Amino acid sequence: MFPTSVSRLSTRPAWLALLLLTVLLATGCGDKPEPAIEAFLARHWADPLPPQGSPPAGYSALEASLDPDACGQCHTEQHAGWRTSLHSRAMGPGLLWQLKLMDQDQGNRCLRCHAPLAEQKALLALEHGWPNAPTEPPPDYVPADLGHRGLICAACHVREHRRFGPPPRGENNQDGPHGGFTIAPAFQDSRFCAHCHQFPDDGPRIAGKLQENTYQEWLASPYARDGDGKRTCQDCHMPDRRHLWRGIHDPEMTRSAIETTLDVIPLGGDRYEARARVRNSGAGHHFPTYMVPKVELLFSLDGTEGAPRELGRHLIGWQVDTAITREIADTRIPAGETREFRQAFNAPVGGDWRIELVLRVIPGEHYERIYRDSLSRADRLPAEAVPLLRRALVETEAGRYELARLEAGPARP
Which contiguous run of DSSP H or E holds residue 369? Predict the structure, then answer.
């Protein structure tokens, strides 16, 4: 049958099994325990997700389909936003080349968030020749490319062919296609996102820190406190319910997250120090939250003969080695806090000079290092993985951008 039984399609490491329990029992500021929401999330994000089963007899082919393009026939705005999001590219070359090196258990740990439906896992098991692949072709409601479509509409909104969504803001038409939908307030709760954006307490750590800790960072931030200032994940990453999920890969979103100032401080004689202060004024979690992105601060001295002279570079981010076993540095900025970056230098004698600070965002810095390191050993990789790996590096490098440029000179009498 397609897909095979859930127990054969997916694995559940112990730390993943405890994910929802850890999140739902979180105490302190932020979301308060609500039994109805907790129970819904426990069912909705069961690990692994069960197959959808056969569609109701009265469903048309469009209503039964798990294809996100089918959803887009009616939900045009949501579909258009999703297509521009990283969710739609969660199964890009950066993961596809790694799946060539994985067995089914390892692959399913990634697919849990990158392609979570049982039907997606079944298709990928067939593609990779994994031992527990289904023995029959997919049914009509499962398009052949579904395994490569990433985090699709159905991953959040469809269970057993029933549709789920947040409380409607206007008229609630329960007589529409697919029998309408089931209202679930959990879609407006930050805990909904924690399924893929928070590891449990016994999850993998580096230097004692969970590798993925975004929900707990939010809980500790001012944005999680009840009142007018409370802002959920959805408030920032799905404004007006748009399916965008913008993050550090988006310049406008990143500019809204931080405030930066630059000063030049005399130290005596021709010695000065450039001081950049970066405040996390808009992100409801660490800036940046994961180990992957970095923000580079490039200090240069301008005003001398020739091109500006680079003085030094600093990184904002959590730097770990490519084996993900050792912390190199952690300069992330918690919500509402400020970090200062200093660069000492000798000023030129006489003349008019200024310090220039350029902020460059490298959304996939950690991946770039992994990809380059892996390409240096390409002769030891499966041949079919290498083109995907090269494409992953090109696409990741293309995501770099300049965020801001500031100038400051010495204080004048």
Answer: helix 365-375
